[in-house]
């Protein structure tokens, strides 16, 4: 028995017709009839009950159907994996990126990766860190970028940015001229925050809670540039990563180091542990690590 016997058997069972199965497989009807007959002889059972022009599975055929589907599916997955291994220049990678991370860190990486691997498709999905982590865990994304910490029992990862949050305020704000600001000083301030599916949202609320207050949130967004514009309009204060703050207009905004406590903003790329990772995805991970090592200015360790 070879794999073609089972594939031909499944096709006949699907169509309940030797003629239609042969047409589907682009082979002649005598060929598929002979293959099924050989399979029946090898197994010592009758697989199809031929009733005039109509055929039905016998009890033995029904038993084989379930097993054959598993075998053929496993075989196709194996050959697909081997094919990917042999054809690294082809493939598809589904990557989840939080909006401010994608805009700040990955255009150059993506550009150079596509130049080197033009036939690998990068499908990018913009979500908050929490949703990215959930979708990587569920297998809906191959790779994601998230805010640490993450579940090390579920994900493999590598960290590539270590920064802290900065206080962003209007130039007329009472803290605008300070060299640093403590979080407790913000307990009565109107906060401009990211939506709940951003890990940063929970991180800030948790740190405020440790100091005994709940932040007054007046606006939530998924876009850091909109949050910064709201701060520039003096509608509230924001806590944004150092990388984002470097892109803000210093004439319209003031960026002050946040202390007591320092809230870390540590980013990592994650993928599922102990699960199949396509060769294209492995190349993306290795390529990204090399790029980050060649660009040390991306690292800003504020520990």
Mean pLDDT level: 88
Query: How many helices in DSSP terms?
Result: 11
The CATH superfamily of the largest domain is: Periplasmic binding protein-like II
Q: Structural class, from secondary structure content?
A: alpha/beta
- Tell me the name of the CATH class of the largest domain: Alpha Beta
As a whole number of angstroms, the C-alpha radius of gyration is 29 Å
How much beta, percentage-wise? 15-25%
Largest sheet: 10 strands, mixed
CATH architectural group of the largest domain = 3-Layer(aba) Sandwich
Number of domain units: 3
Q: Write the CATH fold name of the largest domain.
A: D-Maltodextrin-Binding Protein, domain 2
How far the N terminus sits from the C terminus, by CA atoms, comes to 63 Å
Order of helices and strands: HHHEEHEHHEHEEEEHEHEHEEH
> Which geometry do the CA atoms define?
elongated
Number of strands: 12
Residue windows where pLDDT falls under 50 for at least 5 positions: 296-303
Helical coverage, percent range: 40-55%
Q: Overview of this structure, please?
A:
The protein is an alpha/beta fold. It has three domains: 84 residues, Arc Repressor Mutant, subunit A (Orthogonal Bundle); 103 residues, 3-Layer(aba) Sandwich (D-Maltodextrin-Binding Protein, domain 2); 102 residues, D-Maltodextrin-Binding Protein, domain 2. 43% of the residues lie in helices and 25% in strands. The chain has eleven helices and twelve strands. Strands 3, 4, 5, 6, 7, 8, 9, 10, 11 and 12 form a ten-stranded mixed β-sheet that branches. It has a two-stranded antiparallel sheet with strand order 1-2. β1 and β2 form a beta hairpin. α1 crosses α2, α1 crosses α3 and α1 crosses α4. The chain is elongated.
């Amino acid at each position: 028995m070879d794999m073609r016997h089972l594939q031909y058997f499944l096709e006949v069972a699907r169509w309940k017709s030797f003629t239609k199965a042969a047409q589907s497989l682009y082979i002649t009807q005598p060929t598929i009839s002979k293959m099924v007959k050989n399979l029946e002889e090898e197994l010592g059972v009758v697989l199809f009950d031929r009733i005039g022009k109509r055929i039905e599975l016998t009890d033995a055929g029904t038993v084989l159907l379930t097993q054959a589907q598993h075998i053929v599916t496993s075989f196709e997955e194996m050959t697909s994996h081997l094919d990917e291994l042999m054809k690294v220049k082809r493939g598809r990678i589904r990557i989840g990126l939080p909006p401010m991370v994608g805009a700040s860190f990955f255009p150059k990486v993506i550009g150079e990766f596509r130049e080197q691997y033009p036939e690998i498709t990068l499908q990018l999905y913009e979500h908050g860190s929490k949703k990215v982590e959930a979708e990587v865990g569920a297998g809906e994304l191959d790779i994601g970028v998230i805010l640490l910490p993450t579940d090390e029992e579920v994900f493999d990862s590598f960290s590539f940015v270590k920064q802290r949050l900065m206080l962003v305020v209007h130039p007329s704000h009472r803290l605008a001229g300070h060299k640093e600001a403590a979080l407790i000083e913000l307990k009565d301030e109107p906060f401009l925050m990211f939506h709940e599916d951003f890990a940063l949202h929970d991180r800030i609320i948790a740190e405020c809670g440790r100091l005994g207050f709940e932040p007054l949130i007046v606006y939530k967004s998924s876009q850091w540039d909109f949050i910064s514009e709201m701060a520039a309009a003096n509608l509230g204060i924001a806590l944004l990563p150092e990388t984002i703050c470097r892109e803000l207009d210093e004439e319209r905004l003031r960026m002050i180091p946040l202390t007591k406590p320092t809230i870390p903003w540590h980013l990592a790329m994650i993928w599922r542990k102990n699960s199949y990772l396509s060769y294209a995805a492995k190349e993306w991970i290795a390529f990204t690590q090399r790029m980050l090592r060649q660009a040390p200015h991306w690292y800003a360790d504020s520990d």
